[in-house]
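Quick illustration for those who missed Monday's session on complexes.
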Amino acid sequence: MRNVGLVGCGAIARVHAAVLHALPEVQLCACCDIKRERAENLAREDGCAVYENYTEMLEKEKPDVVHLCVPHYLHVPMAEEAAERGIAVFTEKPPAIDRDQWARLRRAAEKVPVGICFQNRYNPNIRTAWEMIGSGAYGALTGARAFVTWHRDAPYYLDSGWRGRLATEGGGALINQAIHTLDLLVWIMGTPEKAEGLLSNHHLAGQTEVEDTAAVYMLLGGRPALLYASNAYAADAPVMIEFRLEKATLRLEGNGLDIMTPEGTEHRTFTVPETLGKGYWGNGHLPCIADFYRSLEERRAYQNNVDSVADTMEVLMQVYEKGREMP
Ligand SMILES: NC(=O)c1ccc[n+]([C@@H]2O[C@H](COP(=O)([O-])OP(=O)(O)OC[C@H]3O[C@@H](n4cnc5c(N)ncnc54)[C@H](O)[C@@H]3O)[C@@H](O)[C@H]2O)c1
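Prediction with nicotinamide-adenine-dinucleotide bound:
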C-alpha cells in the first residue's frame, strides 16, 4: 500500500482524490492547502490528516508519493522538495513554466520517479489513431492540425489569485488549456524541428497578462502541424485534432474518430471511463494515474515521464520565447 499526500485542494484535486479512491493499492494519507477548509473538505471522506503547510506535510506524513494540484509556478519547487526527501511525484500539467524550472524538474527526476498528468495520451480515440498511424496501413503521415476553442471569462482569471499572471500561470491558452493537444501532436508526430507562434489577447486585453489566443506552427518530424487555441470562444467546444496521411485523414473530435478515405467515412465513437471532472478535461485521469502506480510497482519507466514530454516542453518554450506579441 502506498501512502499519498495531495497538495492543492482546488478544482482538479477532486478528480485526483476520486482516482485514488478507485485504486486499491494506494491510500490518501494527507491533504494540504493554504486554504484549510479546502483541505478539510477533501480529507473528510478518507478521514486523513489536514495540513496548511506543504513542508510540514512531507516531514510529518513521509508519504511515498505526492500529487501536485497547485498553481503552475509551484509544481517545480514542490517537486524538488519531495525529491530531496526521496518522495515520488505526480504533477499536474504544465510540468514547468520556463526553461529554468524545466531543467530543475529534470534534475529532480534523476532522484525520484516524476509522472506528468498528460492524461489525454490515454484517450481511446487517440490511442487508436496512434496505432493506425504507426501501422502504416494508411501510408505516411503528412501533417496535422488541431483546434482548442474554449471559453474563459474574466472571473475565471481574476478570482483564482494565480491565473492570468505570467509569474504564476506562465502563459494562458497555450500552457494551460491547449497544452494537452500540443503534447498529443508532438508525441505522435515526433521531433520538433521548428516551432513558432503568435500570441494575442483579444477579449481580456488589459485584464490579464497572458494570451487568450495562440496560433502555433510546428515542423514535427519534417511535417507541418498547426494548432489554434483560444479561450475567447463562446463555449467549451470539443477539441478537434486531424492527422493527414497519404491514404486517409483521421479526425478526432470529442470521443469520436472519423476515418476518411476516398471510399467514404467510417465513424467510431469510443466508450470512455466515467467523467470524474469536467468533460472537456478529458477522461484520462484514471488510466493515467493508474499507469503511474503500475510503473512504480513494476519498477519501469512511466509513459508520461520527463523524457517523454521533453519535446513538448521545447515547443512550448520556443513559442513563448518568440511569440509574445500581445496587443
Ligand atoms: N489535467 C487537466 O486536465 C487539468 C484540469 C484542470 C486543472 N489542471 C491543473 O491543476 C492545477 C490546479 O488547477 P485547479 O484548477 O485545481 O486550480 P485551483 O486554483 O482550483 O486549485 C489550486 C489550489 O492550490 C492551493 N494552493 C495554492 N498555493 C498553495 C500552497 N503553497 N500550498 C498548498 N496549497 C496551495 C489553492 O489554495 C487552491 O485551492 C493546475 O496546474 C492546472 O493546470 C489540470
